[in-house]
Amino acid sequence: MITEKKSTITYRKWDNGAMREFSEEVTVVRMDNGAITYACGITQEGYLLHCYFGAAIGDDDISYLMRLSDHPFTPNGNNRDRLIFMDSRLFEFPCHGTGDYREPCLMVLDEDGMSTCDLRVTGYRTVKGKPALKQKGVSVIPATYAAKDEAETLVITLEDAHLDLTAELTYTMFTGLPVVTRSARVINHGYNEFRIQRLLSGCVEWDHSAFDMITLNGTWARERAVSRVALHSGKQSVDSKRGISSHQHNPFAALVSHDASEESGEAYGFNLVYSGNFLAEAEVATSGFTRFVMGINPFDFSWLLRPEEDLTAPELVMVYSDKGIGAMSRTFHDLYRGHLIRGQWKDKMRPVLINNWEATYFNFDEEKLYAIAKTASEKGIEMLVLDDGWFGKRNYDDCSLGDWVVNEEKLKGGLKPLVDRINALGMKFGLWFEPEMVSPDSDLYRAHPEWAIQIIGRDMTQAREQYVLDYSNPEVREYVYGQIRAILDSANVEYIKWDMNRALSEVGSTSLPRKRQRELWHRYVLGVYEVMDRLTTDYPYLLLENCSSGGARFDPGMLYFSPQIWTSDDTDAIERIKIQYGTSLCYPASAMGAHVSDCPNHILGRTTPFATRGDVALVGTFGYELDVTRIPEEDREAIPGQIAKFKKFNPLVRTGDWYRLGNPFEDDSFDAWMFVAKDRSEAVFTFVQILNRPSTPSRRILLRGLDPKKVYRNEDTGEIRLGETWMKGGVIVGAQGDFASRTMHFTVC
Ligand code: DGJ
Prior knowledge:
By secondary structure, the protein is α+β, with helices and mostly antiparallel strands. It has 13 helices and 39 strands. The chain binds (2R,3S,4R,5S)-2-(hydroxymethyl)piperidine-3,4,5-triol. (2R,3S,4R,5S)-2-(hydroxymethyl)piperidine-3,4,5-triol (DGJ) binds at residues 357, 387-388, 432, 499, 501, 547, 549-550, 566, 569.
């Protein structure tokens, strides 16, 4: 429900040695859904202030929360005397240049070289449901979606009359979910062009700084490690300047109360629906107030806005929880499963796949692949995914990206004969592409060197001996998509792994005009989205899995196009525990690509039990990445049992509530988690021992999320207890060997 309340704020203050009374008309516009309240205030001068974001609050006058009566008071004798006011109020969408010296959301450079912007509210409107984000000339901007009865949207319009610029701030609140999404669109209504130097998606302010900031950081094969640090004076941020959301930092941040645990305390979670450069920044001002801003990274960003042109910021998802960090995560999971992920695979169990990458790398031919598929199908595996190396003359990672033509030395007669044979085994067939890349040693690069991202006259930095294609150029997109189509139309390909294996460098485009070169970062991402959108629209049955050297683009922008993302190249079960834990802070298990791989592990050299690798891979889409014809007989024989387990528990994992019971970042001796059905009729619990210790007692782990009043049976031990007992008393897990795991199934009796 969106409502408006007008009121007069009256207060007495010392003014030039005398106590005087002041009053000001304000309007509070608030959104409520029973779970949370979000409120903005409009001052009589048209400033848009932040009023409240948190647990649902009664239908009261909350205008006092704008803190207008605090020193200094603005509408005093001199109405222009508002410098300190600007630098200390709680703003919804701060601009640069009029005296707010904290981080702004908007910064505009006009033709005179001036960079001041002053936005005042001109009105607002409400919309049932959630309109798609739009920008002229852009075919798709990923964002959450909702039917008319699932959400309400507030669009506040502000204007800078001097620049003739309007800003539309969009807020959506979802029915029953403690979530607000935000975006901002700026439009040039004037006769002059100007540059948008920064357009962030949103800002939230608090009149205190008693928060810890949680972020997800890492590197290749060690993505999304959790960091939790108390806020302090000044700024703390994570960002990406790499052109992808990156291994190093995820476009996620949470501000949580110092006492917040999995089960209690306040948590504000933020996640940007974007796959390129981002910034998430918290700033504690000398007042002790906190400003949090997030959006496209303003670093090296500049966007020319000609008359009548517009620019739309990506969507910022904001989740509130007063029941701890676990509840925050479960809200993200519900939102993404119900309102972000799309397509025919959204609510379906995914086929159990076998991927040949770690089995063969580039060294395969049709017979080798067929042998893997045949044994795999006998064990119940449902899809063969042919990874890198099937095209051009690619026998190593030094050539042929861009030449998406089957290498007939490996696969005679093209893909069709192989795919037909795989299908005859009763298996689906999936294929790897890296559509955004070109190798210097490729027919494509020889024909079109200008299609690579580059600065003419400068050396081009290679990474994995490849360059990045200029996806801001429609010709490039058309060409690459045409090649993908030709392959898809040549055989029954039902799954694509879309990989992206390097960050951008020498970011310049031969097709963009000089004035628009700094737009390339963002235009590149929009170009990638356009091709993914065409692909998933033209081939709606395709299961698309995103990947970026493992998990360098695990973000909500990608989830809009692909229901699953390869979580990490690190498939070692013990490392994966941490990676999956960090990823779970805002992404659901239904989206996490997880495979059982070979041992010793190809990255770490560690050996873990086959059963543990299986139990850890259950937290995801489940598959295998090993040469099934060569693993120990005992492991091969265990595959049908693992698949049966996956089929039994996947509905719970995919649709249920995820409770993190351990924390491998704080205690690396074990981890435990559970998934509980939405109707609380059953749950699956998993425990993984990391290094065992001598002379240690068994562990007692408290279960979560059960119905306290119902009786649950532990199907593995036969114990029967009240949900309340399992949650307060816990389950006892005896000593396990190093890296051993256990799962337990709990059902209502
Ligand atoms: C990186 C991916 O993360 C791997 O799974 C694999 O597909 C390789 N690229 C292939 O080059």
